[in-house]
Amino acid sequence: MAFAGNVDELALLQAVRLKEQVSAAVLAEHLGVSAASAQAAYDALLTQGKAQEVSDGRIALTDAGLAELEDQLDAERVSIDEDSIAEVYESFVPFHEEFVGLIDTADADQLADLDRRASVVFDDLSAFVPRLSRYQDLFADALAKVAAGEAKWISEPVIDSYATVWTELRRELIGASGATE
Q: What's the pTM value of the predicted model, to 2 decimals?
């Protein structure tokens, strides 16, 4: 559903929840929207009481925002084929196990190889939950920065590093599939 700044409200609310505290600039980068669109969405969340400012220029969801998010996630889950998304989750599990064993010592080539092999799962997930297709762009951005020698884009926790994006996508997949980790 389009929201202020023509931002998808479900993706916006989920981004704020997954990141816990975000600035408009982080939302713009994470959601792939302009700075103006992200700022409009950020301001609308505050105005509507779905978020509150928790530090200078950073917001977190309020109880009302969390309730709205849960309602929208429930509506999304109704539209997802349960058996198909369960198969996507099962296909993801071996890649996740490999990722966990790899991430502390990973280099650009190892991440690129894992990403290439896991892309089929990401494609399937995006087909069933289209709003999650943005994660493929985030993976590509992180991989490009790692390949350019910026090692922090492997696992730095406060940016959309490869590990951060992986963790968020995993949480999204668990939620969509109803898995319990």
A: 0.89
